[in-house]
Every structure is written in C-alpha cells, then in structure tokens.
Amino acid sequence: MSISVSEVSERLAAVAEQLPDRIAIKRETTIKQAMENITRLTMSAIDETAKKSLAMVDATTMKASSESQAAIDRSGSGASSG
Asked: Within 10 Å of residue 67's Cβ, how many Cβ atoms?
C-alpha cells in the first residue's frame, strides 16, 4: 500500500487545522496550573508570616507581662520595707 502525495498533504492539512485549538487548550491548562501553584505558594507564605507574627506578638506580650509583674513586685516590696 502506497500513500499518495495528496493523501499526505490532506493529513498534514488536517493536523495543521487542529494545531491552534490544541495550542489554545494547552496554553489555558498551563496558565490555570501556574495560577493554582502561585495561589498555593502565596497562601503558604501568608500562613508562615502570620505564624511568625503571632509568635512575635506572643513573645512580646509575655515579656511585657513579666516586666509588669516584676515592677509590681518591686513596688510592693518597697512599700512594705518603709
């Protein structure tokens, strides 16, 4: 069985007609995947930043509380010794 030049030409034409649609589908899929990855990475970065911020607030609050308690203790012991 031999394939004629016109058959090859027709097959190539059919493939060429499908290329723009296939490229559009691939491009859309790629963009969607990229956006999903960007969203996931962004949310992860936000979560990590929030965790660090909360830890810093907690540490600052604990330090302030401890310093306040120490000041209260000092003022209480000074009043009892006078």
From this structure: 10
Q: Which long-range contacts (CB under 8 A, 24 or more apart) does 50-58 make?
A: none
Residue 20: partners with Cβ closer than 8 Å, 6 or more residues away: none
Q: What is the pLDDT of residues 12-64, one digit of tens each?
A: 999 999 999 999 999 999 999 999 999 999 999 999 999 999 999 999 999 99
Q: Which two tokens stand for residue 13?
A: 């034409």
Tokens in use for 16? 């060429």
- What does the DSSP 8-state code read for residue 3? -
